[in-house]
Amino acid sequence: MSRSKGCEFPAIYNFGDSNSDTGGMSAAKSQVTSPNGETFFRHPAGRSCDGRLIIDFIAKSLKLPYLSAYLDSIGTNFRHGANFATGGSSVRPGGYSPFHLAIQISQFIQFKSRTIALYNQLSSSNRTTAPFKSILPRPQDFSKALYTIDIGQNDLYYGLNHTNIEEVRASIPDVLNQFSQAVQQLYQEEARFFWIHNTGPVGCLPYSVIYDKSNHVPVNLDRSGCVKSKNEVTQEFNKQLKNKISELRVQLPNAALTYVDVYSVKYALVRYAKNQGFVDPLNFCCGSYYGFQIDCGKKAVVNGTVYGNPCDHPSMHIFWDGFHYSEAANLWVANRILNGSFSDPSLSIHQVCFHPRNM
Fold it and tell me: Is the pTM of this model over 0.85?
């Protein structure tokens, strides 16, 4: 790897929740339906979005294909990595999904072991196996790959909706201890280059605001229209996450761990939405809550009014539905984080292999 060429990662292995799920939960549980995917793919593509996610723009920036979901058995190609993220996942067990972070790491370890064994087996056999071998990861690429992690939002969101702020705040050390264990396991499996997103502003999700209002919870909104208390606990989570990553740098001397402040970028997008050409952030595109609640992808007719039709211009909306960002918003965020402006250390995604510890 030379500085002039950048890191030239041969693969990406991703772990996370719906912010980076490219088809895991859709394959495992219930298929993501139309109009998801309409903006870019022109059909549902396993993503809770009208188009691409930040992980897709990471892959594109590194000149790699979009990641196949590990759980998807149809049309997958793992030569350049795999995606273990699934919608609803959290660091700790429980919550919205059975595929918590420890399960994703276990899946990766099994994936690595089995694909290496199969690759070596095919390498010693005849040429008729070449097409199948070409969709398997090369064993030597695991230590050269980029490991991306974007998880923690659901630990906070589930806790905030089922317990209270104090209990969520008290849970953060345990969440991050389990996060740390996951990173250490990956390190033991030869992972060396990590790109770790902190958690976006939970209090700015439209459903965060709607949930409190609908349940008659006193809502203290900040100047951006976000739930202040929820963002404060998110910021505390991110502060402790950054500290935990600092600890991991000492414990894992050969690792390059890059902490990415996605929170600040997403909050700025919400704060200055109209200046950036977006509509009111609470005005999400797909699904409805005002007047009648209907999830994205479903429709209902109430007193002659059709609820659930997506908006005409998704690119003008920050949020695709009440929880997930639109492709336009994901691109806006990606353009601001990939150059290293919000990274610690301040390295672009093309330079993270030149982390000071690895010089």
Answer: yes
